[in-house]
Amino acid sequence: MTVRFVTGNEGKVREARAYLEGIATVEQIEYDYTEVQSDSLSEIARRGAREGYEATGNDEPVLVGDTGLFVDALEGFPGPYSAYVEDTVGIERLWRLVSGEENRRARFRTVLAFADGDRTETFEGELAGTIVAPRGDEGFGYDPLFEYNGRTLAEMSLEEKNAISHRGRALAAFAEWYANYE
Ligand SMILES: O=c1[nH]c(=O)c2ncn([C@@H]3O[C@H](COP(=O)(O)OP(=O)(O)OP(=O)(O)O)[C@@H](O)[C@H]3O)c2[nH]1
Ligand SMILES: [Mg+2]
């Protein structure tokens, strides 16, 4: 079955496609759903999935994934505003902001929302790591800043990142549920 991943971010699609190979066909839909201003990734993803499903006009279900980077020393900033901060401040300046802190721990969180017109289900994944000076060329977004077990996410192959990442964990929960869907 086909799942339409409503997102403007090709990095997310690549990871979902690789993870769900043999489970579902992932098609990217570049519809710009409303990202509500909320502290809750789950609220943002749920509303986005419902809107995406309604607006993109056929019966195939959709997935929307909202992700945030939560830095301990910055009280969870940029969190749900991570896309805005990446586009405005950028990862180099975020690094400078965190580099003076003793505690550089951070978490990525992803909530995937699946909507089929009847129901909306959510699946979550989290990854704890450390903010470091940017390293590596793989991945996207904040990957070069985020170290897990001695390597940044941008120093891992897509498969290595998927095996441990917030998105990989959310995709695992989705895949388990999807195996018994309909
Ligand atoms: O280092 C990273 N590793 C990841 O695995 C990852 N996933 C997302 N991001 C970044 O975090 C923000 C999320 O915002 P976000 O969920 O709204 O996504 P987005 O705006 O890029 O696409 P869309 O799906 O909303 O269209 C954006 O700045 C993304 O680049 C990541 N950074
Ligand atoms: Mg976004």
From TrEMBL:
Binding site for substrate: 7-12, 67, 140-143, 161, 166-167
Record-annotated active site: 66 (proton acceptor)
Signal sequence segment: none
GO molecular function: dITP diphosphatase activity; ITP diphosphatase activity; metal ion binding; nucleotide binding; ribonucleoside triphosphate phosphatase activity; XTP diphosphatase activity
EC number of the protein: 3.6.1.66
GO cellular component terms given for this protein: cytoplasm
SUPFAM superfamilies named in the record: ITPase-like
Enzyme class: hydrolase
Cofactor(s) for this UniProt protein: Mg(2+)
Keywords, alphabetical: Hydrolase, Magnesium, Metal-binding, Nucleotide metabolism, Nucleotide-binding
A Pfam family it matches: Ham1p_like
Cofactor binding summary note: Binds 1 Mg(2+) ion per subunit.
Gene Ontology BP, a term: nucleotide metabolic process
Membrane-spanning ranges: none
Catalytic activity: XTP + H2O = XMP + diphosphate + H(+); ITP + H2O = IMP + diphosphate + H(+); dITP + H2O = dIMP + diphosphate + H(+)
Residues noted as binding Mg(2+) in the record, renumbered to the chain: 35, 66
Function: Pyrophosphatase that catalyzes the hydrolysis of nucleoside triphosphates to their monophosphate derivatives, with a high preference for the non-canonical purine nucleotides XTP (xanthosine triphosphate), dITP (deoxyinosine triphosphate) and ITP. Seems to function as a house-cleaning enzyme that removes non-canonical purine nucleotides from the nucleotide pool, thus preventing their incorporation into DNA/RNA and avoiding chromosomal lesions.
Family in the record: Belongs to the HAM1 NTPase family.
Subunit-structure text: Homodimer.
Name this protein carries in UniProt: dITP/XTP pyrophosphatase
Organism: Natrarchaeobius halalkaliphilus
